[in-house]
Structure formats: C-alpha cells, structure tokens
Amino acid sequence: MFGLFKRDPKKKLQQDYERKLQAAMEASRNGDMRTNATLTEEADALLAEIERLKSEGK
Which residues fall in a coiled-coil region (predicted)? Predict the structure, then answer.
C-alpha cells in the first residue's frame, strides 16, 4: 500500500535523458559541438542506467 505513492526512478531518468538530448540538439544548432558532445555523452549514460533498471525489473 505504501509503495503506491513511490516515484518511478525510470520515469525521472527518462525525463532527464530527453532534456539532455534536447539541450544537445540546441547546442549543435548553435554550433557548439563541444557542449553537444558532452551532453550526448551524459544522455548515453542516462540511457544505460534506464536500460539497467529495466533489465532488473524495477
């Protein structure tokens, strides 16, 4: 019953992942390729964490 109001960590990670990709795209459009690469790398790390949580079944 108390788990009913518990937040889903995958949902928050997914939102963070989408924000990072959006920021990376905007950086790319502005010509800032270094920031684009950094944000893309961070987004890839978030995606790996999401996949790990999915494989654990949480």
Answer: 10-56
Helical segments of 1-58, H only:
9-29, 33-56
* Binned average pLDDT, 10 residues per bin, the chain of 58 residues: 73 96 97 97 97 86
**pTM greater than the 0.85 cutoff:** no
Q: Tell me which long-range contacts 51-57 makes (C-beta under 8 A, separation of at least 24).
A: 53/9, 53/10, 53/13, 54/10
Tokens of 27: 């950086």
Cβ proximity of 50 and 13 under 8 Å? yes
Tokens of 39: 């944000």
In angstroms, the CA 26 to CA 56 distance is: 33
